[in-house]
Amino acid sequence: MNNMNITEWCHHFAALQVQPGDLCIDATAGNGHDTLFLAGLTKESGQILSFDIQEQALFATQKLLDSCGPFPHVRLILDSHEHLSRYAAPGSVSCITFNLGYLPGGDHRIATHASTTIPAVASGLTLLKKGGLMTLCVYRGGDSGFEEYNSVFSYLKTLDPKKYLVIVSSYYNRPNLPPDAVLIIRL
Hints:
Blueprint: H1 6-17, E1 23-26, H2 33-42, E2 47-52, H3 55-68, E3 74-78, E4 93-99, H4 114-127, E5 128-138, H5 147-157, E6 164-169, E7 180-186
Parallel strand pairs: 1-2, 1-4, 2-3, 4-5
Antiparallel strand pairs: 5-7, 6-7
Helix pairs in contact: 1-2, 4-5
């Protein structure tokens, strides 16, 4: 097995889930890497909704998409991830990705927070179809602090085990508080 970073680890499982024609959501577009990855999996017959609250992030995402070919099935949305349910119907989404924290290369004062992330995750879970997957890259320490990390993990512990399988993966022997990967499968 390769020495994958946390995003590649989440991509590995998303690739097992997503099929051409699926509807997927990148809840935190950032620099566009998850959006591009999902767009490649769904092909043009699918649809990707990619959210961010920063125009800079959507610009970076569009630039990445343009450099890799046309992706007419990707819709970039300048809105908070807490509003996911305004854009997709319950039970219609195959995969939702979250990469929490701040925009790499951006203003570290603009970051995700538990006050919007937890409602976004809760809303996203209702959008997943049965067997659907949600991935989260959850950071702690540094600029993000522990508040969002602790709140997200406290919330995940409350999810009904008859409805959701929650798997947490840690880079246990890595220094500097690496992020944790979370996989949530709707049963």
